[in-house]
Design goal:
The structure is a single chain. The chain is of the alpha+beta class. Helix 2 runs parallel beside helix 5 (135-154) and helix 4 packs antiparallel against helix 5. The chain starts with a helix and ends in an 11-residue tail after the last helix. It is globular. A 5-stranded antiparallel β-sheet has the order 1-5-4-3-2. Helices cover 42% and strands 19% of the residues. The protein has one domain (24-162): Alpha-D-Glucose-1,6-Bisphosphate, Chain A, domain 4 (2-Layer Sandwich). It has 5 helices and 5 strands. It has helices at residues 2-13, 26-35, 40-49, 60-77, 135-154, and strands spanning 55-58, 82-85, 89-92, 108-117, 120-129.
């Protein structure tokens, strides 16, 4: 009887949910990820990124420079350790939270590949996060892939503070 009463008491006061984070609605998440406290330059940059592809071709010389940038980017901004890095693949470890769990942060994982296609190289960027069903993590994952793709193509990383780690 005491156990039942304590369970009721904890549930009614909200203490039973003290270790979990509230899952924001999609509208709140859009604001948190794309607009909250961003400068005009950051907002313009993110709008420009939305049209950038994450699969693209490069000539051999540009591909070598881009591959060096990819290694440095994943090492510096990846939320997970690098699992494999060779001439054709950069892959980090991944970690997936249980369904419904909302983490304190979203660990970013990367898979970057480059494959020779004739006289050019084909780059492909895939990202994952530790809590893919949590909207802020998912939006951050998409944003990271676009930022990395743009960085590999141009060598320009104007807003590294926007990268989710």
């Amino acid at each position: 009887m005491r156990l039942l009463f304590l369970t009721f008491l904890l549930a009614s006061t909200g203490c039973s949910q003290a270790t979990f984070y509230r899952r924001p609605t999609a509208d709140e998440s859009q604001t948190l990820i794309w607009e909250n406290d961003l400068t005009l330059a950051q907002q313009t940059y993110l709008l420009k990124l939305r049209t950038e592809p994450t699969d693209f071709d490069m000539d051999p010389q540009a591909a070598e420079d881009a591959w060096e940038r990819a290694n440095a980017f994943v090492d510096m901004y990846g939320g997970m350790r690098i699992r494999n890095a060779n001439a054709f693949e950069i892959k980090t470890f991944t970690s997936v939270a249980p369904a419904g769990f909302v983490p304190k942060d979203c660990s970013a994982a990367y898979l970057v590949t480059r494959e020779p296609e004739g006289e050019r190289y084909r780059f492909s960027i895939r990202t994952a996060v530790s809590a893919p069903d949590w909207v802020p993590c998912e939006l951050g994952r998409q944003r990271n892939a676009l930022i990395l793709a743009q960085y590999l193509r141009t060598g320009d990383l104007p807003h590294p503070e926007l990268i989710q780690r």
